[in-house]
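Field log, afternoon session.

UNIT: design team B
ACTIVITY: writing a sequence onto a fixed backbone
BACKBONE:
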């Protein structure tokens, strides 16, 4: 009787290998540069931006920090909303700036590093959230249309 094996699609396998490689580089060297592909952190972080990430002790992640997290076979850079102390350890609630809901709590094993800088073209940008940035995030969370227009204008 033949043994059945479950195979993964090539794109999923490449994504998993890329995530493992990124995590290993961060563990080995303590730093990583990673290009953003998603739009969940608009307006602070845009697709095409390069994140500079440093390894850190997850217990140092505080609300307001942007952290790199391993999630569902991929990497996500989201902002820490709050810390939760549980019997089995600390958990962190994360959320993308332009996403309406929070992510499920992340464990210390899922947090890989802290984003220390954003590179956009030849500029290095701050991660500090200003009032206009918070207002723009609030608008983007509530309007898919405005998000699509912003992405269109930002890439032209």
């Amino acid at each position: 009787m033949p043994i059945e094996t479950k195979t993964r699609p090539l794109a999923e396998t490449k994504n998993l290998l890329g995530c493992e490689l990124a995590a290993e580089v961060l563990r080995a060297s303590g730093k990583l540069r990673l290009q953003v592909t998603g739009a969940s952190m608009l307006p602070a972080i845009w697709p095409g931006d390069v994140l500079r990430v440093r390894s850190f002790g997850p217990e140092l992640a505080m609300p307001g920090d942007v952290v790199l997290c391993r999630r569902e076979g991929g990497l996500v850079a989201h902002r820490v909303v709050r810390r939760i102390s549980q019997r089995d350890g600390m958990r962190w609630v994360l959320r993308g700036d332009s996403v309406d809901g929070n992510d499920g709590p992340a464990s210390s094993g899922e947090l890989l590093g802290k984003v220390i800088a954003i590179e956009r073209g030849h500029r290095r940008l701050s991660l500090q959230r200003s009032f206009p940035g918070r207002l723009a995030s609030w608008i983007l969370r509530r309007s898919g249309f405005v998000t699509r227009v912003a992405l269109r204008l930002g890439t032209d």
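LOG NOTE: The beta strands are 31-35, 50-54, 66-71, 74-86, 89-95, 106-107, 111-120, 123-125.
NEXT ACTIVITY: expression trials, pending approval
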